[in-house]
Specification:
Elements lengths: L15 E2 H5 L6 E3 L5 E2 L1 E3 L9 E4 L12 H6 L4 E4 L10 E4 L3 H12 L8 E6 L4 H11 L3 E4 L1 H6 L9 H13 L4 E5 L2 H5 L10 E4 L13 H9 L9 E5 L3 H9 L3 E6 L6 E8 L4 E7 L2 E7 L4 H16 L4 H9 L9 E4 L5 E5 L4 H14 L3 E5 L9 H12 L2 E4 L9 H13 L5 E3 L3 H10 L6 E5 L6 E4 L2 E4 L2 H9 L2 E2 L7
Helix pairs in contact: 3-6, 4-10, 4-11, 10-11, 12-13, 13-14
C-alpha cells in the first residue's frame, strides 16, 4: 500500500495497478488497456474523476449502467459492469457476471483488506442491532462503530453501507489506530453482497420478527438472508440469542464455534436476578469466565438481551469482565433508542426507533407496566413493507390508551395511503385515536392527551434528523423538537443500585 487517504483524495493517495485489481475479478471481457493506474473508486458517476474506476451497480430505481458514459466523460479511466458496453477511445471497460460482487472485491483489494487486520464483529437481526453495536463499541478498546446512527451522521443512507464505503471506513479506522470494527449487517446488506469481503471474527444474531416483507417473501426468506452471515460466510464465532425462535434454529444449523446468550442458564452468557426499573436495569451476568452485577442506564427486558449480546462479544474478544462492566455502565444513551425526556407538565416522553410490529409491541408492553396511561404517536416509512402497517395499527390500538397516527418518511409513496393502512388496523380494536398528518402537530396533540405521570411514546424515527417526502428532505428530529418546541428535558441518570 502506498498511501492513506480515502477515496475522495488527499495526501499520499492510494495507487493500484488496474491489472492487479482486475486479477480479483471474474472477467468475462475487457475492452481497452489493462495498464491504467487506479487512484480512486466510485459507484456514483458524479464522483468520477481522473484515474477513477467506476463500478455500475444495478438498482431498484435506477441502473448505474445508464451512467457509464457520464463517468467516462468526467474522467474515469476504467469502468466495470455486468452489461455489454463499448468504452470511448483510450478508456477501459471490464464486463463481469455480477457488479456488486465485483465492487466488493475491488474495494477490499484497493484498501488492502483492512478487516483482515481489524478484529471485526458483525451484528444482524431485526431489532437491537444499533444498540448492540454501540454497547460493543463501549466494551471493545479502540473500536470503530459503523451503525445506523453513525452512518446517518456521515451521510450514508443504509444500515449497512455499500462495500466500498465499508472498506474505506475500515481503512480509515486502521490509519487512526483503531484495532477493532463493529458493523451492523442488514439482510439487504447480505443479499446485495456489501459484506462479502469483510473478514468477520464474530457475528451476532439478535432476533427475527416481521420486517421488509416487501423484499423478502415471508419469514423463511428473511431468515435465510440473515443466516448468510453465519453459514455462507463461515464467520468463526457465532453469538446467538438462544431465547429467540429463529436463534434456536440458527444454533442448530450453524457449524461455527457457538457462544449463546439469553435469560436461561442453558445459554453460555445469561442473566439472573433481573430488576427492571423505569430508568434502568440491574441484573447478574453469568459468563464462561466469571460473574458480575451490571447496572445499566437503559430499561427494559429487550435492553437486557442487547447488553448480554455485547457481553458475549467482549468475552469472545478476550476483554476482561471488569472492563466489560465498566464499558456498559458508561453508556448514557444510544441516540434514538429509548431516550427519555420529561415535559414541564410532568409527562414522561420516550423517543424510540421502534418501527416494526414486534418492537412497537415490546415498547408499549414495557411502558404499560410502569405508567397508568400510555399515548402512542407513530407512522410507517414509505417504500418498506406495507404489510406491517395495519399490524402496527392494531398493536397500538390494543396496547396504547390513545394512538395518534402521523407521517414518518413517506418517501415516494402516497402519504395518505400509508396513514389509511395504519388506521385500518387501529379501527379493528375500536380504539381511541386521531390521524394528524403533520408530525410536529401530532406530537403536540399526543402530549395534550397525557396528564402528569402519564407517558407518551414517540416511535418510528428515533435518531433520524429529517423527514422524506418524495425528493424533499425536511429537517426534523423527534428529540430535538420535544426539547426546543415543547420544553422537554432529558431524564437525569438513575443512580439507584
Amino acid at each position: 500500500m502506498k498511501g492513506g487517504c480515502d477515496q475522495e483524495g488527499g495526501r499520499d493517495p492510494i495507487e493500484r495497478a488496474l491489472a492487479q485489481l482486475i486479477g480479483e475479478l471474474e472477467v468475462q471481457s475487457c475492452h481497452g488497456s489493462r495498464k491504467a493506474t487506479v487512484r480512486h473508486l466510485c459507484f456514483d458517476s458524479r464522483k468520477a474523476r481522473l484515474d477513477s474506476l467506476f463500478v455500475a451497480l444495478p438498482g431498484k430505481y435506477c441502473d448505474g449502467h445508464a451512467f457509464l458514459d457520464d463517468a467516462f466523460a468526467r474522467g474515469a479511466a476504467v469502468a466495470v459492469g455486468q452489461n455489454e458496453h463499448t468504452p470511448p477511445a483510450g478508456k477501459t471497460y471490464v464486463r463481469v457476471p455480477h457488479s456488486r460482487r465485483a465492487l466488493s472485491r475491488l474495494a477490499a483489494a484497493f484498501y488492502g483488506h483492512p478487516t483482515r487486520t481489524l478484529w471485526t464483529v458483525g451484528i444482524t437481526g431485526t431489532k437491537g442491532k444499533t444498540s448492540v453495536a454501540h454497547y460493543c463499541q463501549a466494551v471493545l478498546d479502540h473500536a470503530r462503530c459503523l451503525s445506523t446512527v453513525t452512518n446517518a451522521a456521515a451521510g450514508l443512507e443504509n444500515t449497512t453501507p455499500e462495500s466500498l464505503d465499508i472498506q474505506r471506513l475500515a481503512h480509515e479506522a486502521l490509519l487512526a489506530g483503531r484495532r477493532r470494527l463493529v458493523l451492523e449487517v442488514s439482510a439487504h446488506g447480505l443479499v446485495h453482497q456489501r459484506v462479502n469481503d469483510v473478514a468477520f471474527d464474530a457475528a451476532v444474531f439478535t432476533n427475527l420478527s416481521q420486517d421488509h416483507f416487501d423484499d423478502f417473501d415471508g419469514f423463511d426468506a428473511y431468515f435465510q438472508a440473515k443466516a448468510q452471515l453465519f453459514n455462507t460466510m463461515q464467520t468463526p464465532t457465532a453469538i446467538i440469542n438462544a431465547d429467540d425462535a429463529f436463534g434456536k434454529k440458527l444454533i442448530q444449523q450453524t457449524p461455527q464455534r457457538l457462544l449463546s446468550y439469553g435469560l436461561k442458564p442453558q445459554a453460555q452468557v445469561y442473566a439472573t436476578a433481573l430488576r427492571l426499573r423505569q430508568n434502568g436495569s440491574r441484573f447478574k451476568v453469568h459468563t464462561p469466565t466469571g460473574v458480575f452485577v451490571l447496572n445499566a442506564r437503559q430499561p427494559g427486558r429487550f435492553v437486557v438481551y442487547n447488553l448480554l449480546a455485547a457481553v458475549a462479544v467482549g468475552v469472545c474478544a478476550g476483554v476482561p469482565l471488569e472492563r466489560i462492566k465498566t464499558g456498559l455502565e458508561s453508556v448514557k444513551r444510544v441516540p434514538g433508542r429509548f431516550e427519555q425526556l420529561d415535559t414541564p407538565q410532568g409527562v414522561r416522553v420516550v423517543v424510540d426507533f421502534a418501527h416494526s410490529p414486534d418492537s412497537l409491541a415490546k415498547m408499549l408492553g414495557f411502558l404499560k407496566e410502569h405508567y397508568a396511561k400510555v399515548v402512542a404517536v407513530f407512522g410507517c416509512g414509505g417504500e418498506s413493507d406495507p404489510y406491517k402497517r395495519p399490524i402496527m395499527g392494531r398493536i397500538s390500538g390494543q396496547l396504547a390508551d390513545y394512538t395518534v397516527i402521523t407521517h414518518d418518511n413517506p418517501k415516494r409513496e402516497d402519504p395518505q395511503q400509508i396513514l389509511s393502512q395504519i388506521e385500518s388496523g387501529v379501527r379493528q380494536q375500536t380504539a381511541r385515536y386521531d390521524v394528524i398528518a403533520d408530525r410536529a402537530t401530532a406530537i403536540r396533540h399526543a402530549l395534550s392527551r397525557a396528564r402528569p405521570g402519564d407517558c407518551v411514546l414517540v416511535a418510528g424515527k428515533g435518531h433520524e434528523t429529517e423527514q422524506i417526502f418524495g425528493q424533499q428532505h425536511l429537517p426534523f428530529n423527534d428529540r430535538q423538537f420535544l426539547m426546543d418546541a415543547c420544553g422537554a428535558l432529558p431524564v437525569a441518570d438513575d443512580q439507584e443500585t
